[in-house]
């Protein structure tokens, strides 16, 4: 998973940085690791998915984002997606993927401020 995705504790959130060359195997490992960290780390209130490294998305990447957000929600953590490029947003909408389990924020700072407000 190293290099494809990383998970870092920032304040009361886990920052998940997803790289462009993520695979099915990487995602399974990421899902397991993320769910364990949400459940086991004290005070985690949210997950911030940083997709700024993604130049384009397809249904696989959209599904990955939705799955990670769903896992976080079931474990009582709110999900924010940051770093979304305009072309990525357009493509997700064209694919019919609206990501109802997550919110968007312009930056990590904005997402962390929203999480702090509750």
TrEMBL record:
Domain of life, per UniProt, equals Bacteria
Q: Which Gene3D superfamilies match?
A: STAS domain
Residues annotated as signal peptide: none
Per UniProt, residues of the STAS domain are 3-115
Q: Which InterPro entries match?
A: Bact_StressResp_Reg (IPR051932), STAS_dom (IPR002645), STAS_dom_sf (IPR036513)
Q: What is this protein called?
A: STAS domain-containing protein
Which organism does this sequence originate in? Lutimaribacter marinistellae
């Amino acid at each position: 998973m190293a290099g494809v995705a990383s998970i870092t504790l920032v304040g009361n959130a886990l920052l998940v940085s997803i790289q462009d060359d993520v695979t099915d195997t990487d995602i399974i490992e990421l899902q397991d690791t993320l769910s364990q960290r949400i459940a086991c780390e004290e005070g985690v209130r949210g997950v911030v998915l940083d997709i700024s490294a993604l130049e384009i998305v397809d249904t696989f990447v959209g599904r990955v984002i939705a799955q990670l957000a769903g896992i976080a929600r079931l474990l009582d953590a709110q999900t924010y997606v940051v770093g979304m490029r305009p072309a990525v947003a357009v493509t997700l909408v064209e694919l019919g993927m609206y990501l109802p389990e997550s919110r968007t924020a312009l930056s990590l700072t904005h997402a962390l401020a929203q999480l702090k407000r509750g």
